[in-house]
Design brief:
By secondary structure, this protein is an alpha+beta fold. It folds into three domains: 249 residues; 60 residues; 164 residues, Heat Shock Protein 90 (2-Layer Sandwich), CATH 3.30.565.10. The chain is 65% helix and 8% strand. It has 17 helices and eight strands. The strands form two sheets. Strands 6-7-5-4-2-8 form a six-stranded mixed sheet. Helix 2 packs antiparallel against helix 10, helix 4 packs parallel to helix 10 and helix 12 packs antiparallel against helix 13. It is elongated, with a radius of gyration of 38 Å. The termini are far apart.
Length: 562
Amino acid sequence: MGRLEKMLASRAFRGLHLAAGLSAVAVYLAVPDGTVLEAGVEVALHATVAPLILLGVWLHRPSRRAGWYVVAAAQVVYAVGNILGSWVPAVTGAERPFPAPADGFYLAAYVGLVVGISLLLVHRSRGLGLAALLDTATVSVALSSLAWVFLLEPMLPAVTGLAAAVTAAYVLVDVALVAVLVHLALAPGARSPALVLLVAAVAAQVVGDVLYTVGSIDGTFAAGAPAFTAWMLFYVLLGAAPLRPSMRRIAEPDTTVQRLSANGRIILLGAAAMLPPATLLVHVADKRVSVLAAITMLTFACVIARLANVYGELQESTRVQQLKDQLLSIVSHEIRTPLTVVSAALSTLQRGVADPLTSKQGSIVAMASSHTDRLIRLVTDLLDVQRSGSGRVELQLGDVALTDVVRDVFAEIRDSAAARGVQLTCDVGYVAVRADRQRLHQVLMNLVGNGLKFSNQGGDVSVTAVRRGSEVLVRVRDRGRGVPAEMHDKIFEPFQQVDASDSRAHNGTGLGLAICRSIVEHHGGRIWVDSVPGAGATFLFTLPHSESMTGQPEPAFVSADI
């Protein structure tokens, strides 16, 4: 960076500019109203704005410059309007008609200012989506009710034709500028000095326009009115914003810093929603209308209070759920690794690799191995529940013959079934489904295993399936104690069991059915239970049918045949 660039980019130069600008405002206020000198000071001060914007772009080289260029071009157009609307009438002594050619330049400059700042906001607000736009629209539409009742409506009776159209256009562009300010207030991101100056400049412009409109309504507006002071501050602040190094960050997205909390946004939107009835209450003298407006405001206040309360409850619920998920993840991962090591060590001891075990030692090691395997299953189930709750269940879909999966399940638990005297039967013919084979095996293992646990000596557990259109309905039936009607939905929730003692008596965790539901639903199916207490239970679930696999119907089989 050369010496000139360093000087222009220095804090001293920025301070000099602000001092000179504020001095110009003081001179403007000191000179007689309506004189050539007063108009000249205004035109000269405004003439510096566009060059200062271009200077800031050149010095700080923001990655997104289009918005700044549009704002600079708008100020050139605005300066031409000031020459025609302020300086020329001051020199000639002629009255400025309304509307005049200067108004066309003013309106074009206003539109350019809105477009230019909007271009900066497009990238800054990236990621906010529809919600931020709706927030801005809500507040802006509410404020437009004030503009209509207190600014536009009082002026329209006094003007007609083109004058009425121009008056309405001024109010509309001011509402657009207010929308820009609202969006800057609601959008996330750090409040850099350049952004603060830009917001202050737009606010000064809006204040000046409001003062101008009010003065026009009551007949007090004239050269040197307070509106001109606000407009002069607009020139100074708008020229100062791009000179700040932070101007390069104005157009950059930054969602790490929130401007308003969610409760703050709710309150702001609620207040905006109450503006139209509040305006009606103040503006209309009719008692019936006033009562209705007051009731509307009270209703809005109650709704907003309730929304804030609901949001607080949701935040707390979300925080608790996040803590629970983190705890499950940490505990599960930290426990599973050492348990796997312990299980491997116990298996080594059982095989007698070190030294042969005595009968008593073998019994102790077998008991420890059984409990270790149970803990590993519990940890695995916890991880499965965590994945399903966060939507992270991954499926490897393929065409699967249901008979093959049932055979594998029966083969794994055949010995347990024989020990309990329970017969396992399958009659599914040849039905193919579109599924993740490993996950389908997990579902059937849980359901058949549950049926085995709760079956009486000499009972049976059967698996049947039938095609129904584009899906396959699978039934797993047992002859056990059944499930009470009030538990039909609850048992598919984590840690829910028909009897609290089941976890001790049957080594259950209360997670199996929750995992089954998650897997089935991720396949696009559904699962439910049909049961009468004392007469057994039938668990039913659906899966997509596979059209690509064909085969011959297979006979029914029992576990003893495997």
